[in-house]
Every structure is written in C-alpha cells, then in structure tokens.
Write a structure and sequence with these properties.
heterodimer, A: Immunoglobulin-like, 4 domains, five-stranded mixed beta sheet, about 10% strand, globular, B: Alkaline Phosphatase, subunit A, nine-stranded mixed beta sheet, about 35% helix
C-alpha cells in the first residue's frame, strides 16, 4: 500500500571489537551490530528518503572491490512501518546482498515485547495482536545472519503495535476519561491508541479556573456564582478533559466546600484550591498533599489555619480537626489495608485501626502555627486565600509529636520541618497506595474494582517503574489501561459505576453546546437540584461515601456510592432538570432568546432526523451516549417514544428521545 | 423471589410500590404481631457536626459553677436561664440563654432533657477506659462513625441498618413509604435492607414535569419512562432504575395527599429547620388520608462542628433550633396531635470541655432534647454530669464518658412508639449490658 520501506543497510567488514555496547555482542564472533532504532531517525520517519539510504551501502566500503577475502553478510532489514495497528500483518524481512550463492542462516532473538514465535528464515511474520491488553506493544528483535564461513552480522529492529481505538472504544474511553464526550470528539479520538491519547492529554496546557472567573459587570469582587461559572466554562470547553475529570475526582477526595460555610465569600480562594488539584493531577501525590494541607481554604475548612499550640493555663489544646481528617480521608483511612485494598486482619480476625488518639494529638501539634501568607502578625492575618499558608514559630507547638508507626518528631522542631516530616510519614504509610488508588478507580471507572485491579494500580502508585512513589500520571495511566477498565478478559457482571448527576448534565451541555447569549453559567441551586455541585459537598465526607451500599444491593457485596444521593427528592429534581434542559431549553424552539437564559442547540440532529430519518439519529446516539452498546430494548423504547412525536416538529422528536436517554439506567451506568 | 425480581415483576404488572414492600416485609417480622389503630410519629432532629450540648445545660452557682468556669474558660455560658426540674441539682441548672423559646415548653412539662448520653457498649468508668478493660465504641470522636452509632443504634455490623428502620420493620409498618419520610435526604437511621426513606422536598410538593398533566403526551411519556426504568439487568443500573420508579410513584402519591393539607404557614418561620418541620407538620396533618399509623421523620440542621468562632456561631444555632422546635410544638397543638408526636434530637457527639482557642473539638457524652405531649417533661433525665476537666468522667481534654447509653435513650422512645418490652433488646442489642433498658421520660 503506502508502504515506505525502511532499509537499514549494513556493510560488514572483519573489524574486530567494534564495540557497540549492546548485550548481544558477546554471543557471536565478531558480530557487527546495527541498531535500526526506528524512533532514532534512521527509519521510516525519513519521509521517503528510504531509497537514499542504500547509497550508503554502495559507497560505504571501498575495500570490497577486488578482494577475495570472505566477508560477513551484508544485510538490510525491510519493515513496512515502525508502527502497526491491531490486526495488521507485521512482516520483518532481512535482505542479504553480496553473498552470491552462499548459504546464510538466520537466527532471530526477541529482546522485548509480547512473545512472538520466532523463525529461522529471512522473515518474521505475525499478526499484530488486538485483544490482550490496551497498552501499546513495543517490540525489539535482534537478527543474526551467518554465512558458510561462519561470519555473522547482527542487526536490531524495533517497532510498535498501537492499540488504536475504534469509534466505540473511543467513546467508552471518553465517557470514563472526560467530562462527557461530544460526537466530534469521539470521531477525532478514534484511530488513536489509548496511550497516544492519554499521553497527549497529559501534555496539554492546563486550563486553570482562576483566570476564568468574571465578576458581575457592576462589581469589583467576584461572587460565589462566578467561580461556579468558571467551573462550567472549563468543564464545557477545556481541551485538557482528562485533567479536568481527574481534578473533579480529586475534589471528591480532598473535599472542601463553600456550601453554607464562610468560604462562600471566597470564590477566588475556592478557584485557587481547584487549581491546585488541576496542577497536581498528573504530578506527585506528595506535592498535592502538601499543597492541599497548606491551602488557606483547606485551613479554614478544617480549621488548622490559626491553630495554636497548647496553652495549659487556659485549657487550650491544638485543634484536632485536620489531624483527624487528613488521616481518615486524604491518606490512609481508618483501617490497615492490604495492597489490594481489602482490610488486613489481626490474629483474631479483627480489623486493625491505623491510628488512635495519640497519633491524632501528635498530628494536631504538627498543624499548629500556620496562618494566611503575608500576615503581618499572628493576630493580624492577611486573609489571603490564594497563597499557601505561612508559619509563625511562636504559635507552633515545640513539643514532641507522635506520628504513625511510632515515628516521633523530636521537641523543638520547627513548624516547616515538622510539616515535612509529618507529611512524609503519612505519604510513606503502606495504606496510601491502596486507599487512594481504589478511590480514584471508583471515581473514574467502577464502583466495585476487583482486588487484583486495585493491587495493580497500587503497585504503580508505589513505584512508577523508575523508583518513584506517588506518580499520579502513572497511576492514572494504570487505571485507564488496566484490562478491567478496558473490558478485556472476562468482564465482571457488575463492572461500571452510576454516573454522577452533575456529570450527566455536563455531557448534555457539551453535546448540545449549552450557552447563554452573554456566556454566563449561573447555576444557582446545584446542590438542591442535583444533590451536588463542584466543591459543594455538605461535609468533608463528600456527597457520598466510597462504601455506600443502597438497600437494593443489600443481598450482594456490591457498593454504589453515587446512589447515596439518589433519594426521591433528588431523583425527581434530576428528572425535571433533564426535561427542562432537553425539552424546554432548546434554542431553536424559541422565537426570541432571553439574554440570561441557558439554551441547548439541536440543529444538527434536527437536520439529521429530517434528512436521514430516525435510525440515523439512533445510530449516532448509540455511539454518543452508549459507546455502541445500546441494547435492542433501549432502541425499541426510543423508537416507540418517537412514534408519538413523529407527527410533531422535529425538535420535539430529538428532545424527547434525548430526554428518555437521559433518565435511562442504561445511559446512567458508565461502563 | 428476591426483592429486585419482585419489584421488577410488580412494576411490569403495575402493582404499587407501597403494596409490594408490605408483602415483602412479612419475612422480617418478629415473634409478636403488631396492629395499630392510632397514629404516632417520631421526629428526629439530627444536629450535624456534634452539638456542644453540654453548654445547653450549665451549673449556675457554687462548686459546680467554679469547676465549669475553670474548664470552659472563655467558652463558659453566662446569663443562663434558671430551670426548675423535678430533680434538684447541686449548683442549680440553667438553660443556654439563646434557647429561651423552649423554656416555657419545659416549664409546661412538654419538654425534657436527657443528660450525659452517648455511644456506649457497656457501662464504662474512667479506669475501664484507660485500661481498655471494656469494649469501647469503634472510632470514637470521628464524625461519620459516631453519627452512624446514633443512627444505627448499635455497633457496626456487616449488614447494618438504622434503628428507625428496624423499629418500623419490627412493628410491621415498613410497607408504606409514608411511614418513613426524610426531609434531609438519605440517612442511615431510616435505611435497612428493605427500607429507604421517602425524601420529601422541604417545600412539600414536587411536580414531575415530563408526566405532569393528564393528556396523551404525559401518559405516553410516563409509560415509556416506566418501561425504560425497569429494563436494566446490571445490578447497579437496576438499583438506580428501582429508585427512580419508587421516586415517581411515591412523589405522586404524596403530592396528592399534601395538596389537601391544612395551611400551617403562619406557624413557621424561614429557617431551613423551620421549613423542614413545616412540611413534617403538613404531612402529619394528612395522616388519616395517608392511612399512616406509625411514622418516623428525619430533619436536620448542620453547622454544629464549632471548631472555631463558637462564641458567635453556637448561640445562633441554638437560637434557631429552639425557635423551630417552639413553632413545631405550636403547630402540633393546632392539629391536636401533640400527644401523638414526639420530637427528639440526636447529634454526632458532645464536645470537649477544653477550648482550642475559640472553639471546641470532638467529644463524647452530651445532652439531648425530647419534646411532645407524651413526654414526662420539666425534668432532666440521665446524669447531669459535672463539667470538670480531669474529673471522674473525663477521658482526657474534657471528653466525658457517657453515663447513659444512647441505646437506652432510643429504647425509651421505641417503647412509647409501641415496641413490646421483650423486643427492645432485639433492636438494641447492647441493652443487655445495662441494668435498666429504658428511662422514664415518656408517658406510657
């Protein structure tokens, strides 16, 4: 086809000790090794210059003219491409030149990559696998060509098999890894490999929320609603969707809330807090923990800002709030865990608590002496809600501080040093990897991950392969590429999670380009309509707990955290909200648009149903909302729904179809 | 047939949810059989965050006052309103001055306090605590765990349930959603394997817009919604579908009942708790229409986690709480339902006697309020504890060991609600560790 052959020509001569430094060199006498290293520039990336390469062959060895001396084989490796797609035939061919009629033998050796059956001929051929894992496969082979004189030439060859996504696979990934895909996004991602897309997302510039805050036109200072408006703008429009999704997940672990708290008056501080989550979403967990701990917003929310050392005279002791919650919720949890996230048990089969009152008091002392940055004095705090807190030694406890696992911070350690030691102590606890990995999996992929899945991710959290602990990019990658997440191998009957009500709405607003004429998203009552809003949990325990089991699942071992907020009032609220959005707020159904009202735009699907009929719309929605897995029953229900509206205007047809999708269990389940 | 299959079967056949849970519940009956002709309601007011309830009832003079002031320092309450409970206490006892609006209810003997109450497995002394010689509730001082002990009414077990839900089931009253109503979302108190509270919006009525009205469009949309909601076989999706179907059925039934309720709006002010109690009152006003015999209601108020700024925030909270309680008391009188409705408070825990500068931290024992015509009011039950730092009940830092188990408190309410004495320990298993199972704060 459009093959650009990759020729790697090697002229051999009887040079001894031409140290190439690769591990293969001691295996054969006087081998000559050429590393074809496709990625390194000599391969097919040469934009059609392949034919030029062989000129190097002819003029490379001027000493071969009339000599009778026996030479090692001159070989060239021919490869169609250095990347292959799943299912394609990979063919590696060795061309031997200048050997005349001499017999040569071929020995193939695989240096890395999934194991391939080797041959003893001049070619290696196999079908690129398409179902074992979602990881791109990186192959590395060494071929040794030996002639009858016993002279050998060796050459390495590298290439990759990319796990390119089809449309349905792209849709499925984007439902897990974005805030809700649009049709065009799915089509744009299809054809890429999972790793390619994830790597692209990791490297996109960060869409921070703070710069998106716009005050009311007549005000100097922003209002709470202006930071929620910024959240919508980023969620709807940001390119770095994976980061936005992971940051949202982190906001449900490192919970702060401006719902009915004094923080409702600090929208810039709240946005700055969200920006910390965005900034560190693919950074290191230890840095994230420190930034969260030192955030004045967290300091106010869990009251370690302004927390003083003990004063026995006045019966004052350090505030224990942050000490407790940083352990229970942000790092290690209440019970000792196995690497796979299950509880450890003592010899009596009892769970083992991770900490007691002594440790709480130890950490409470650590979190003393911190207040707003640039405060002139302890008693005159600056009320700067966006910069990390600063320490005042006079107010920091100089006492000994007992940490986890018996570690003790000696007396007279400074506030900053104490903090570093204490956060390291938390960070290095064995619970952190399974505790955080499992919750991230639950927020992103599935409510009931198998212990094996948790363990595989936790191992990456503990060591990203380069000896680094807490690498969140590596952890996130492991979460998305795991076979369980990708539905490879035997699927679990209960795999998946209930979509959060807020995220369901984000997808519909993204798909139908929801906007107001003045580009403002003033969603005033999110918690009372959806049961949740960004950074609006009713408490530090989030909207729902990771171990929540609804009554409907009581005869199983399964949990469904998101159903904790699925009470009757919220569910009716969600029905009404979807109905209002998808049926009443369709712009094309209004003669005149109100400047401040939000509208959804459905012209495209309206045209589609008029030109290509209902089945074209249903095919599109199958991919868009069900990742290609719409059941026959669902499809029939949508057809029947449409029957009533088919005689009406086509906006009503689209509206009612999408509304029925919006409340359906099949769509509400993310798989 | 399990519940899910049964539900899906009923949905297809159009049987109402209320009827089906009634049938389903027969498997959960105790040995006794219950049948009620009269109406009673328990209204739980949950004070989220851990109310500093030791500051609701404070000593007025003498040694107790001295100890109190020494412990509490800048957070000591002054100008308390003197109470005259039946039992006299050394140093007297005063009500927090922000709670004036319930003082006359106490004086009229329709309100009582239970004092020194908290989560306990067995009677526990300071030495027991220090030597760890008795079992202690797990995760003391932790918000959600201690909230859970109040709502579950027992220690954590693998398949847990709330004591409100267990009580309804044991009394064979779980079958109708109108018996289990929350104004504050899902909560463990009202939840069990078979029961989830019906959540009522605090405005009372929730229209379901897509199926509002009587035309062909509404009925077409409704039939398709029901069909789609019953479709999934995946356990999580199916659980969601069941919740959706129940929400629709229950909301429609409740809407039609509440539309016929008495106008009580003059009795209630605008605070969130008042609005919640307003809707509880409206719902109680249609108890006959709903054919409700035993109802439990859950309302809540947040903000009690006063780690800081307590001197400002706590009086405001107690003031709002008292105002709402007083309004509810008047509304119940107007409905002539006072004797049948008992309101009571729960909270995560009491707070530390010591201050952290301008607030308090998570403690243990505290005081709770019981209000209603059936209350033996004007009295403080349990043990009005010495607020004595490092005193006989102080574990450390002013976290007091409860002298009454919250299960004893709950059992007293359950007994009034109609549960037979012999079945109290089935619902509250730790009662067997205590000499008396109930306290006499309810008239039988």
């Amino acid at each position: 086809m459009f093959a650009r052959y990759v020729y790697i020509i090697l002229i051999a001569s009887l040079i001894t000790g031409c140290g190439g430094g690769t591990e293969a060199e001691e295996q054969v006498p006087e081998p000559i090794i050429s590393d074809s290293d496709n990625g390194g520039g000599s391969g097919s990336d040469g934009d059609g210059e392949g034919s030029g390469d062989d000129s190097g062959g002819s003029n490379n060895d001027s000493g071969n003219d009339s000599s009778d001396e026996v030479k090692a084989p001159v070989i060239a490796i021919k490869l169609d491409s250095n990347t292959f797609k799943q299912g394609e035939i990979v063919k590696v061919n060795v061309e031997v030149s200048e050997q005349g009629t001499q017999q040569v033998s071929f020995v193939w050796e695989q240096l890395s990559g999934p194991e391939i059956a080797l041959t003893t001929t001049d070619s290696l051929e196999f079908t690129a696998s398409n179902n074992s894992t979602a990881l791109d496969e990186k192959y590395h082979f060494l071929v040794t060509v030996t002639n009858s004189a016993g002279l050998s030439t060796q050459q390495e060859v590298r290439f990759s098999v990319l796990k390119n996504m089809n449309d349905a696979q792209a849709s499925r990934l984007l439902h897990q890894a974005s805030l809700g895909p649009t049709y065009n996004e799915i089509l744009a991602v299809a054809g890429k490999s999972y790793e390619q897309w994830l790597d692209e997302q990791f490297n996109l510039p960060i869409t921070y929320h703070s710069p998106l805050i716009e005050s009311f036109p007549d005000r100097d200072e922003p209002n709470q609603i202006n930071r929620i408006d910024a959240w919508w703008k980023a969620s709807l429009n940001a390119e770095d969707q994976l980061r936005q999704r992971v940051a949202f997940a982190l906001s449900e672990i490192f919970v702060v809330s401006d719902l009915n708290t004094s923080l409702s008056g600090e929208p810039e501080g709240m946005a700055a807090y969200y920006d910390i989550l965005l900034q560190h979403a693919f950074g290191n967990y230890r840095d994230l923990l420190e930034q969260v701990t030192l955030s004045p917003v967290m300091g106010v929310y869990l009251s370690h800002l302004g927390n003083e050392k003990a004063d026995p005279e006045r019966n004052i002791r350090p505030d224990e709030n942050y000490a407790r919650e940083v352990m229970q919720l942000f790092t290690i949890g209440l019970n000792e865990l196995n690497l796979n996230g299950t509880n450890k048990q003592d010899e009596n089969g009892e769970i083992i608590p991770t900490y007691g009152q002594t440790e709480i008091e130890g950490f409470a002392k650590v979190f003393t002496g911190w207040t707003f940055a640039y405060s002139a004095r302890w008693s005159r705090p600056s009320r700067n809600y966006t910069l990390p807190m600063q320490a005042f030694e006079d107010y920091h406890s100089s006492a000994e501080k007992t940490l986890l696992n018996g570690e003790v911070i000696p007396a007279n350690t400074s506030a900053e040093q104490s903090l570093e030691i204490a956060l390291d102590n938390l960070f290095n606890h064995d619970n952190v990897a399974p505790f955080i990995s499992k919750q991230l999996i639950q927020r992103l992929i599935t409510s009931n991950p198998s212990p094996g899945y948790v363990e595989r991710v936790a191992m990456v959290f503990n060591d990203n392969g380069e000896g680094i602990r807490g690498d969140l990019a590596a952890t996130v990658k492991a979460i998305y590429l795991d076979n369980e997440a990708r539905g490879l191998g035997t699927p679990l009957a209960y795999f998946g999670k209930i979509k959060e009500p807020l995220l369901k709405t984000v997808q519909f607003w993204r798909v139908f380009n929801a906007k107001t004429l003045n580009n403002r998203y003033y969603t005033w009552n999110l918690p009372s309509t959806y049961g949740q809003g960004p950074l609006q949990s009713p408490s530090v325990f989030n909207f729902f707990r990771p171990d929540y089991q609804p009554g409907e699942l009581a005869d199983t071992e399964l949990v469904a955290p998101e159903l904790q907020i699925a009470n009757d009032a919220a569910l009716v609220g969600i029905i009404n909200t979807h109905y209002a959005d998808l049926v009443w707020r369709v712009a094309e159904r209004h003669n005149e648009l109100n400047e401040n009202s939000l509208y959804l735009y459905m012209q495209e699907d309206h045209d589609l149903i008029n030109m290509n009929g209902l089945s074209a719309v249903l095919d599109k929605y199958d991919l868009l909302f069900f990742a290609g897995n719409m059941s026959q029953e669902m499809r029939q229900a949508l057809i029947d729904m449409d029957e009533f509206f088919a005689s009406r205007d086509s906006y009503q047809r689209i509206s009612n179809i999408v509304y029925l999708i919006s409340i359906s269990p099949e769509f509400t389940l993310q798989q | 047939m399990n519940r899910r299959k049964f539900l899906s079967y009923c949905m297809k056949g159009g049987v109402s949810v209320a009827a089906l849970t009634q049938l389903q519940l027969q498997a959960f009956q105790g040995s006794l059989s219950y049948n009620f002709d009269d109406h009673k309601a328990l209204v739980c007011v949950f004070l989220f965050g851990g109310n500093d309830s030791l500051n609701m009832l404070v000593p007025l003079e003498g040694e107790q006052r001295t100890l109190y002031e020494a412990s509490r320092q800048n957070l000591a309450v002054t100008d308390a309103l003197q109470l005259s409970p039946v039992t006299e206490f050394a140093g007297g006892v005063g009500l927090h001055p922000a709670m004036g609006s319930i003082k006359n209810i106490f004086d009229n003997k329709n309100l009582a306090f239970i004092s020194g109450v908290g989560s306990l497995i067995v009677p526990t002394s300071k030495a027991d605590y220090q030597n760890e010689s008795v079992p202690l509730p797990k995760h003391l001082f932790s918000h959600n765990d201690q909230q859970a002990t109040w709502m579950h009414g027992r220690e954590k077990v693998s398949l847990n349930s709330g004591w409100g839900a267990r009580l309804l089931e044991r009394l064979e009253q779980g079958g109708s959603f109108v018996n289990n109503i929350s104004l504050s979302g899902t909560n463990p108190w009202q939840t069990s394997v078979n029961l989830t509270p019906f959540s009522l919006h605090r405005s009372g009525v929730s229209k379901i817009n897509p199926i509002n009205g009587t035309g062909n469009r509404a009925s077409h949309v409704k039939s398709l919604m029901n069909r789609v909601l019953a479709q999934s076989t995946h356990p999580l999706a199916s659980a969601y579908g069941i919740k959706m179907q129940n929400a629709i059925t229950n909301t429609e039934a409740m809407n039609s009942a509440i539309e016929s309720s008495v106008d009580l709006s003059n009795y209630f002010s605008d605070s969130s708790l008042s609005q919640q109690l307003h809707t509880v009152a409206k719902s109680i006003s249609v108890r006959e229409t709903l054919n409700a015999k035993r109802q439990i209601y859950f309302v809540s108020m947040g903000g009690f986690d006063t780690h800081d700024n307590q001197l400002t925030t706590h009086p405001a909270l107690l003031g709002a709480l008292s105002q709402s309680l007083s309004e509810f008391n008047t509304a119940m009188s107007s409905l002539n339902a006072n004797d049948d409705v008992t309101l009571f408070t729960m909270s995560d825990f009491g707070r530390t006697l010591t201050s952290n500068g301008d607030g308090t931290d998570h403690g243990w024992a505290g005081n709770q309020i019981i209000m209603g015509g059936a209350v033996n009011g004007g009295e403080i039950y349990g043990s009005l504890m010495t607020q004595h730092l490092d005193g006989p009940n102080d574990t450390r830092g002013g976290r007091l060991i409860p002298q009454v188990a919250n299960e004893q408190y709950f059992a007293s309410l359950a007994q009034w609600f109609g549960l037979d004495n012999t079945e109290l320990v089935d619902i509250f298993p730790n009662l067997t560790n205590f000499n008396s199972h109930t306290l006499p704060f309810m008239r039988s």
